[in-house]
């Protein structure tokens, strides 16, 4: 079969996240199975307009807004139309329902934005976007949808997508990369791994460290990631005089030990817990990756994260909009209750064994072919 995958970023985009990792894993497996795959995404500085990677033909056109129009023009220019178009939604839909036959299109939803708009857009634009998002889906009547969490499925139902058209599949995990390390850090160590944008709420983690550091001066929080919110977060660390307790990890100058080649994994293996109090997630891949390293997570009770973390078994689930006190109390609980920490770590490892890329791909393939 010939596949056309539409996604706003490809695996080489410097702003890529978990969604792009998932998309690439599936695309390269489709190629391995003998299918033809074109991956269409937006252009970014320094990129080639066309290239081949793992047998996938990557086409890059337009910016974050115009790429959707370019996708339509590209589809129309194809003499031989693809057998299947996978419309990967990241806030903005590609509106393939307006130009791709119903039987040839599948809408793949990572997550809906909803509350995210209030963190990422200024008022009143956030209000407008919040109400407009639902309208995007009106054209997709009777279209097949796939997603990887039940809470995202319920979000789609709230947007009037019929439940019978929505299927879920399980995400994958690279067990060769994510695995248990030699030992945990001797001092309390927490990590935050995500793109530095407001909706991920890294600022809440910094605020929570004020109380934690007061009680445990040797405790550390490592913030692993980059993004437009970094400067504000660095200012917050300076304001609270947490320079000794909170560090921003730069892979070029942060050193673990001479045997550690994979910085992200090395820190996941040493951490006592992963912090991810996001406003919203599709799943939160870093949660499952950390779990495979024997590291439980402390997360907010929001879509995606309530699926990827089993409450009080593979991590601690806070309220949907936690305060810094709620988060710091959970962090202190991890530090002070050795039995709880050991049990959560063990259950996290067992939970992670349920996930593999081959299993995930096979489930996904059945839903799109």
SSE pattern, N- to C-terminal: EHEEEHEEHHEHEEHEHEHEHEHEHHH
Approximate strand percentage: 15-25%
Structural category is alpha/beta
Number of strands: 14
How many alpha or pi helices?
A: 13
Counting structural domains, the number is: 2
Work out the helicity level.
25-40%
Q: What is the typical, i.e. mean, pLDDT?
A: 94
Write the layout of secondary structure elements.
Blueprint: E1 2-6, H1 18-32, E2 36-41, E3 50-53, E4 56-60, H2 67-77, E5 84-90, E6 105-111, H3 117-120, H4 125-135, E7 144-147, H5 150-158, E8 166-168, E9 189-193, H6 202-215, E10 220-224, H7 230-239, E11 246-249, H8 263-270, E12 273-276, H9 285-292, E13 297-299, H10 305-308, E14 315-317, H11 324-336, H12 338-352, H13 357-368
Parallel strand pairs: 1-2, 1-5, 2-4, 5-6, 6-7, 7-8, 9-10, 9-12, 10-11, 12-13, 13-14
Antiparallel strand pairs: 3-4
Helix pairs in contact: 1-13, 6-11, 9-12
Could you explain how this protein is built, in words?
There is one protein chain. The strands form two sheets. The protein has an eight-stranded mixed sheet with strand order 3-4-2-1-5-6-7-8, sandwiched between helices. It has a six-stranded parallel sheet with strand order 11-10-9-12-13-14, with helices on both faces. α1 packs across α13, α6 crosses α11 and α9 packs across α12. It starts with a strand and ends with a helix. By secondary structure, the protein is α/β, with parallel strands linked by helices. About 2% of the residues have low confidence. It has 13 helices and 14 strands. A hairpin with a 2-residue loop joins β3 and β4. The chain has two domains: 185 residues, 3-Layer(aba) Sandwich (Rossmann fold), CATH 3.40.50.2000; 164 residues, 3-Layer(aba) Sandwich (Rossmann fold).
